[in-house]
Specification:
The structure holds 2 protein chains of 2 kinds. By secondary structure, chain A is an alpha/beta fold. Helices cover 33% and strands 25% of the residues of chain A. Classes of the chains: A alpha/beta, B alpha+beta.
Chain lengths: 223, 290
């Protein structure tokens, strides 16, 4: 699904991480942890091609990012659900239109009932017409997650998806991701929340990766 | 919601670039109607002058009063026997007075002025042997001068043709300026909507979809602006007074009959121009943005 080979990334002030090699298999479930600024968000951006590695190679669905055409990259992203840390919505469209965007912008049909079900599931049924700037932090994260999963992606990448949610909603959304994983979606979640990781491990066989000191490693089994 | 409907929605409908497109399209549409009117009028003038002056000629006879009638008879006789002339008609004094009245006023004392007499000729398509006719006239009626209108017709038709060229150049310049403004507006629109582009890229939208969203938004504005400008200019032409009469050839600036339909082509043409300019710009900008 995603293959990192000896990847180094450098924004110009020295490498953020280097020599990272990793394979995310289809149907796998990973958490990515590490201190702030270690490069978790950068790692996720490399996974969906928003950034290119400074050296080494990243392959998505079997194709090297560097050799992908713009249309190929778009096609790859249609199979990837992304929950950005800052959510990124079209602020002039309502929640329902934002959530449906991955389908409509790629000209795929979306039954109205599916959209309503999904909005109900994330607790936003009564906020379907609300504009993103009027949403609370938690509502934005739920809407972003709904938008990421609406395409039934092969890979779900989430950057702190429960950062602004209460524990009950965090558990609920995590269980949605676990459910997707059981249906074959590979999941990679960047998070600081160790409780969330422990909760997930009770429901799914998750590996925990840790970025620290410019290296990526599998975290200890105590988590 | 259909992809086309959502593509209409993804670009915010406000913003300076949107108004820039609308206003420039309105101004260009307004000016294009005037340029088109100039082209149509010039073509009409060229056709009219050419048709009115072609296959006609005039013979002017100047002679002392005692000889004038004799010379007229000689000239008419020469003309009857000249191949290439279908009709020769002596203008009456009232007709000559009417011709002069347009330029010199109604109070002209024709009876005391020694005016030459005029014979109006209608020629066949091939016309007479003009050089031979002139020689015969100079030999048989020395006061008669044959004028085939060439020296009047040629500069008039040339002037009308140049006006037409001028109008076409003006139309071209208007199109060029409009393309440039829309290119700038499309660039500005894409730059100011970087967040929209980023989100669409994030959800896997192809460049074609993103470009279409911007192009449709800009083209729609160009159509609305050009329609408003065109209608405003047409209303102005409609309200122009019809001078008619002897000033018709020079005062008839505007549209006549079916030519009123021509300006209706301006909004769709402006839309096509906007579509092409914004499409090229959108792809150019999107290629530079990751």
């Amino acid at each position: 699904m995603i293959l990192f080979q000896d990847v180094t990334h450098d924004y110009g002030g020295g490498p953020l991480f280097q020599g990272v090699s990793l394979k995310l298999e289809a149907g796998s479930f990973h958490f990515l942890t590490g201190p702030s600024g270690a490069g978790k968000s950068t790692f996720l951006k490399l996974c969906y091609g928003e950034l290119l590695p400074s050296s080494g190679s990243v392959s998505i669905m079997g194709t090297d990012l560097r050799t992908m055409s713009r249309d190929q990259l778009a096609a790859a992203r249609q199979r990837v659900g992304i929950v950005h840390q800052d959510c990124r919505f079209l602020d002039h469209l309502g929640v329902a239109q934002n959530v449906a965007l991955p389908m409509t912008a790629t000209e795929r049909p979306l039954p109205e009932s599916d959209l309503e079900d999904l909005l109900s599931w994330v607790g936003l049924a009564d906020r379907a017409a609300a504009l993103p700037p009027t949403l609370s932090g938690g509502e934005r994260q739920r809407a972003a997650l709904a938008r990421a999963v609406i395409v039934a992606p092969n890979l779900l990448l989430a950057d702190e998806p429960t950062g602004n949610l209460d524990w009950e909603m965090s558990q609920r959304l995590l269980l949605l991701m676990v459910e997707l994983n059981r249906m074959g979606t590979a999941v990679l979640i960047a998070t600081h929340d160790l409780n969330l990781i422990r909760f997930a491990k009770a429901h799914v066989n998750a590996r925990v990766l840790r970025i620290a000191g410019r290296k990526l490693a599998v975290a200890g089994s105590d988590l | 919601m259909s992809a086309r409907a959502i593509s209409d929605l993804v670009v915010p409908q406000g913003g300076q670039s949107v108004w820039l497109v609308t206003l420039s399209a309105a101004a260009m549409g307004f000016l294009a109607v005037f340029a088109l009117a100039l082209a149509v009028s010039a073509a009409g003038l060229a056709r009219g002058w050419s048709a009115q002056l072609a296959q006609t000629a005039t013979i002017r006879i100047s002679a002392p009063p005692a000889e004038i009638e004799q010379q007229i008879a000689i000239v008419l006789d020469v003309l009857r026997t000249t191949p290439g002339i279908t009709e020769a008609r002596l203008l009456g004094e009232e007709e000559q007075g009417a011709l002069l009245e347009a330029w010199l006023g109604p109070d002209l004392p024709l009876d005391v002025l020694p005016l030459p007499r005029l014979i109006e000729l209608t020629e066949t398509a091939e016309g007479p042997d003009r050089q031979g006719l002139r020689l015969r006239l100079s030999a048989e009626a020395p006061g008669a001068v044959y004028d085939d209108h060439t020296r009047w017709r040629r500069p008039l038709v040339q002037a009308a043709a140049r006006m037409q060229v001028l109008a076409v150049v003006a139309l071209g310049l208007i199109g060029l300026v409009m393309s440039a403004v829309i290119t700038l507006a499309a660039s500005a629109s894409l730059a100011s909507n970087g967040q929209v582009v980023a989100v669409l890229r994030l959800v896997g939208a192809r460049d074609r979809f993103i470009a279409r969203a911007f192009v449709r938004s800009i083209s729609r504005r160009a159509f609305l602006g050009a329609t408003a400008g065109t209608l405003a200019a047409l209303a102005l032409f409609w309200a122009l007074p019809d001078l008619g009469g002897p000033l018709e050839p020079v005062a008839g600036f505007g549209f006549r009959g079916r030519s009123w339909l021509l300006p209706l082509l301006i909004p769709p043409l402006a839309t096509v121009l906007a579509w092409l300019a914004s499409l090229a710009t959108a792809y150019h900008v999107l290629r530079r943005v990751t």
